[in-house]
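Antibiotic biosynthesis monooxygenase (ABM) superfamily enzyme, pasting as requested.
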Amino acid sequence: MTSETPLTAEHLATDSTSYLVSFRVSHENDGQLSEHLSRLIPKLEATLGFESIDIIRRKGGQGVDFYLVTRFESVKALDTWKKSRERIEALAPIEEMYITDISREHTSGSNIWFEPVTRLPSQPLPPLLWKHWVLSILAVYPLLILLINTLRPIISPLHEAIGLLVVVTILTGLTTTFIVPCLSRKLMPWLSRR
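Structure tokens follow.
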């Protein structure tokens, strides 16, 4: 969604103010968040002093990043919106979907440029412990059974500790290099869900 009025040199000469909000939601909440934002926009448009909103949505491996730039004709108009009951009520369900901290930045007048957003404010929350545990079992157990049965003719004449070392060396190499990263990508929506 973009504003109808592009930024021009006239924008620099006004008391206009811009407000950037960036956050990340899980892939599952992407559609639901978009619906909430589409209900928020008419409330913004009805706000005295509101000029425009631009929404940038970017899908990533750990979630969907949203960057919202709202423009108001003055700092007072922005402050009024930020303190309004309509804003608080409209944002409550949206804020429940965040999986990272929210970054907020404000600029006014001729200073329309924001600091570059090089990353979102914090890393997403790690998977819940029990989900991490399940992922580990899925990665290790089937491969362990396969390796023990496949390597039995080679490791059975060896001392038990040496045989286990051979199995563990192959197991950890395969799980850390291939299996866990692949499973993590495939199961990311489930792992990030709270």
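Note for the archive: The beta strands are 17-25, 50-59, 64-72, 103-108.
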